[in-house]
């Protein structure tokens, strides 16, 4: 992969909250905007804006699953200026609204807890039996 594209990917992963302007990114890479767009798509398989959208939505999904923060706050934190746009893009990508996604993740986690508790109990019972015999 072209090192300029690799560097740009790292930058996008770290600075996904920032507004993305192709001309500014092109200057960072010492390429014309059209050459950058073409090279990026050729090597990454997606557009720059498509890649940023995926990164932002992945970060949002993590925050929805593991925090109790408000959807609007998460949307803003990952770089969406409009909560409605965030919700539309999230729903298009994940097939659920952010709130539905969070509830599904919470339910999955709650169902996993009893399975872990059962495993721990059965494991401790074996240890107890083994130590008495």
How does this structure look, described?
This protein has 133 residues and is mainly alpha-helical. The protein folds into two domains: 1-45, Homeodomain-like (Arc Repressor Mutant, subunit A, Orthogonal Bundle); 58-133, Arc Repressor Mutant, subunit A, CATH 1.10.10.60. 79% of the residues lie in helices and 0% in strands. It has seven helices and no strands. The protein has helices spanning 3-14, 22-29, 33-44, 48-66, 71-77, 83-94, 98-132. The chain is elongated.
Main features:
single chain; 133 residues; mainly alpha; Arc Repressor Mutant, subunit A; 2 domains; 7 helices
Q: What kind of sheet is the major sheet?
A: none
Low-confidence stretches: none
Report strand %: under 5%
Count of folded domains: 2
User: What's the CATH H-level homologous superfamily of the largest domain?
Assistant: Homeodomain-like
Total helical segments: 7
Helix content: over 70%
Looking at the structure, the CATH topology of the largest domain is Arc Repressor Mutant, subunit A
Assembly form of the protein: single chain
Class per helix and strand makeup: mainly alpha
Quick gist of this model?
The protein has 133 residues and is an all-alpha fold. The chain has two domains: 1-45, Orthogonal Bundle (Arc Repressor Mutant, subunit A), CATH 1.10.10; 58-133, Homeodomain-like (Arc Repressor Mutant, subunit A), CATH 1.10.10.60.
